[in-house]
From TrEMBL:
Enzyme class: hydrolase
Pfam family of the protein (one): Glyco_hydro_20b
Domain of life: Eukaryota
A GO biological-process term: carbohydrate metabolic process
Name the UniProt record assigns to this protein: beta-N-acetylhexosaminidase
Signal peptide: 1-22
GO molecular function ontology, one term from the record: beta-N-acetylhexosaminidase activity
Transmembrane segments: none
Family recorded in the similarity comment: Belongs to the glycosyl hydrolase 20 family.
Reactions catalysed according to its record: Hydrolysis of terminal non-reducing N-acetyl-D-hexosamine residues in N-acetyl-beta-D-hexosaminides
Claim: ATP-binding is one of the keywords in the record: no
Catalytic-site annotation from UniProt: E372 (proton donor)
Chain ranges of the Glycoside hydrolase family 20 catalytic domain: 212-533
Species per Swiss-Prot/TrEMBL record: Coemansia interrupta
Length: 774
């Protein structure tokens, strides 16, 4: 392959040939001023402190520290640092369990092991964990015994001391001490350029609200267990303490007369039992066994998160009614995912369902869902809600929660005040009325707290600036915050807290797993700030100053792989031209590839110099998995005339790029089990250039260096029925397939840019690798 210097591309970019680089952070439109500059722009060691005082300013963390008294000087983590666990509390205390939804919560030793691995990832240091009553000036000491009578510290507060004698974190509970390690971890991330020197000082930190929750719809899109663990890692980093998993659901349904094919619609039930009475309902694409849930809950506990499982009935129940159409309300005006509560067999089934699965979960609280049911059957629904609440308490010694529904199902029967309510919509419930009746309330009010990818009704991405500046858990009407009839008092004792919910209403094909994580990560930090610290910091630090440091934290959370943004020294992430007879990366990043199973470099001719010959069984591997938007990926391909069905051009665990699929000869993307045709056909025995680029709104596909397609899917929801653009996570782990289904032919000039690219530049990129025209 003809080689052109990459510096030429860099120079071209400088004069605008390559295209527009990432936009800078927009200037703030707010009039807020920062009353503590050091806190807003990040901590620097004391040698750079501003003013005449050497007292250390408040360190930047999310959520913000409630109280900080700065000391003088720094403390630096080192290779001799240990995490020392107080033997008196190493195995936890009774208060740990009393202040958790979960039985048998994690203890200080468990949390120390989590922290140990995170320090390794952030600093590269192999710190040890020891159980001892004394610690040295180099150590981090974890202990309990903080004043449990301190009304502000409550069960999750902690005291943090950083001084010349070492670091001490003291909680009332083990989880409270763990939150102190989150603070220390974030301080280390932001001190990476300062040799991990941390400011000396004393913090007294505590949450304003006891429940800081995220809710995940895992029914309408298959989500692997590994992704769920990363959701936990993400939210634990910001001191969320509760996760609710929505295990069953279906797309939005019309009434039976308007949806005669309702039994063919996708539905999700993600719990897979060995019991034949219930195993039939579990999805084949993704579902979780009892062992999976045990593993997952143990992972959650070691990160301070409680799990609330939800099985949502009597609506959202297509996963059950499609097997039992006789269980539906026999009326053309009824939705087929509504279970007929007048049928005693139905109620017995739901009791049995909880009897099968309640024991899988350590939580003392379950969610029965109970929203969006037939409004004409209000008292029947209310009786069912109260019955299930009593049934769960009597049979499992657990409490229940539900989605706000009392306005939607009017009736004469009062819903029990022992049910906690997740308020989500004013047409469904009124939080001010709920607390008057004695119900605990959690704020998940839509649209502010609702994340619904690709939705026209709710936010595709949470507006984090709006949350940071205007929202708090007591705010149920962000447009009318001062109206007492539309909001609760910040000190309302029945207000448990709040958070945000991710709903996948538009099913799997509308959004990739990587996109979901991206949306969650960009919402979590602002919500965490307001759930823990309220407006104390956001009233004084402008969002424009807060956001860049929030971004740095978000992009460096240890244990996260779903960002899919590999590190790069320049705009090229990978550049393979094969001219050295090997798969050397010319980007400067050192991401060299490897030839496998007979793949070999050959003289290709036709202006291409050297290229790699692949057969169905051979492939090239790279050290990277995938890249999320923005990016551009391209390569030259000369396929032989005969190809296996679904022959692979590119592959990773996130998806594949196929030369064709089983029903079409066109180049095809496969992501999360979904197929996206491009209508582009690569001619056999001819060099063609294929490339694709994602910019955050769409994925453009280029054939012979001209844009020929935009990746789309058809939104089949009854109230949408239109084509929508799709963002592909680029698979770059292998050129060809590791499973014996590679494209048979020549490949050349493989590149990955860590930004998007466009038509004029794509021609420049293609010709960079070959002195040939397609």
């Amino acid at each position: 392959m003809r080689r052109v210097s990459l510096s030429l591309l860099a120079a071209a970019a400088a004069v605008g040939v390559i295209g527009v680089m990432a936009n800078p952070v927009p200037s703030s439109t707010t009039s807020k001023t920062d009353c503590n500059t050091a806190a807003a722009i990040g901590y620097h060691p004391s040698s750079t402190s501003h003013g005449n005082s050497n007292v250390q300013p408040t360190p930047f963390v999310i959520p913000s520290l409630q109280e900080w008294n700065g000391g003088k000087g720094d403390w630096t983590i080192s290779k001799s640092t240990r995490i020392v666990v107080d033997p008196k509390y190493a195995s936890g205390i009774a208060l740990d369990s009393e202040h958790s939804f979960m039985v048998n919560p994690s203890n200080l030793k468990d949390f120390a092991a989590t922290f140990q691995a995170e320090i390794k990832e952030i600093t590269g240091l192999d710190v040890s964990v020891v159980v001892a009553s004394k610690y040295t000036k180099n150590d981090i000491f974890l202990t309990l015994g903080a004043d449990a009578k301190d009304p502000k510290l409550n069960s999750e507060g902690y005291l943090l001391d950083i001084n010349s004698k070492g670091v001490s974190i003291q909680g009332i509970t083990s989880r409270g001490a763990f939150w102190g390690t989150r603070t220390l971890l974030q301080m280390l991330i932001l001190a990476d350029e300062d040799g991990f020197a941390l400011p000396q000082g004393h913090a007294r930190d505590y949450p304003n609200y006891n429940e800081r929750i995220t809710m995940h719809d895992i029914a309408r899109k298959p989500i692997p267990l590994s992704d769920l663990k990363e959701y936990v890692t993400l939210t634990s980093f910001y001191k969320f303490n509760t996760q609710q998993l929505h295990f069953n659901d279906n797309p939005g349904m019309r009434t039976r007369d308007l949806m005669p094919d309702w039994q063919t619609k996708y539905s999700g039930f993600r719990l897979k039992s060995d019991n034949p009475l219930y195993s039939m309902y579990a999805n084949n694409d993704t579902s979780y066994t009892k062992q999976d849930m045990r593993e997952y809950q143990d992972f959650m506990k070691a990160r301070g998160i409680d799990l609330i499982p939800e099985i949502d009935t009597p609506a959202h129940s297509l996963a059950f009614t499609k097997f039992h159409p006789e269980w539906t309300i026999q009326s053309d005006a009824a939705r087929p995912d509504w279970i007929d509560l007048s049928n005693p067999e139905v109620v017995s089934f739901i009791e049995g369902l909880w009897g099968e699965f309640a024991g899988w979960f350590d939580s003392r609280e379950l969610s029965i869902g109970a929203d969006e049911y037939d409004a004409t059957k209000g008292d029947l629904a209310r009786s069912f809600i109260n019955h299930m609440n009593d049934y769960i308490r009597t049979n499992f010694n657990k409490s229940s929660r539900m989605w706000g529904s009392d306005r939607e199902i009017p009736g004469t029967i009062d819903i029990s005040s022992t049910l906690q309510t997740l308020h989500w919509d004013w047409t469904m419930s009124d939080p001010t009325e709920l607390v008057k009746r004695g119900n605990k309330v959690t704020n998940l009010n839509a649209p502010d707290c609702y994340l619904v990818p690709r939705s026209q009704s709710y936010e595709d991405f949470i507006d984090s600036q709006k949350i940071y500046e205007l929202w708090e858990p007591w705010v149920f009407d962000i447009l009318d915050r001062n109206n007492a009839s539309r909001n609760l008092s910040p000190s309302e004792p029945l207000l448990t807290g709040g958070g945000f919910a991710n709903w996948n209403d538009f099913l799997s094909e509308s959004v990739t797993r990587v996109e979901i994580y991206d949306r969650l990560a960009k919402a979590a930090d602002a919500f965490a700030e307001k759930l823990w610290a309220g407006s104390k910091n956001s009233d004084s630090i402008a969002y424009a100053k807060w956001a860049p440091l929030a971004k740095k934290l978000r992009e460096n959370i240890p244990g996260i792989t779903l960002r899919r943004r590999p590190e790069s020294k320049g705009q090229f992430l990978i550049s393979y031209d094969f001219e050295d007879g090997a798969v050397k990366d010319n980007s400067g990043n050192g991401y060299d590839g490897k030839l496998n199973n007979g793949a070999k470099v050959v003289d290709a001719g036709e202006g291409h110099g050297k290229a790699v010959q692949l057969s169905a069984d051979s492939f090239i591997t790279t050290p990277l998995e995938s890249i999320a938007y923005p990016y551009a990926v391209g390569m030259w391909v000369k396929p032989n005339g005969e190809q296996k069905a679904n022959a692979v051009l590119l592959e990773s665990g996130d998806g594949r790029l196929l030369i064709s699929n089983s029903t079409s000869q066109s180049v095809t993307f496969e992501q999360d089990g979904n197929i996206y045709n491009t209508q582009i056909v690569l001619p056999p025995n001819t060099w063609s250039h294929i490339a694709f680029s994602a910019d955050g709104t769409k994925t453009s596909v280029f054939f012979n260096m001209r844009r020929q397609a935009i990746v789309q899917y058809f939104n089949p929801r009854w109230d949408q029925l239109r084509n929508e653009t799709m963002l592909i996570t680029a698979p770059i782990n292998s050129i060809g397939s590791k499973s014996g289904n590679s494209v048979d032919g020549l490949v050349d000039g493989f590149f990955v840019l860590d930004r998007a690219s466009y038509g004029g530049e794509m021609a420049f990129l293609g010709k960079h690798y070959a002195n040939a025209l397609p």
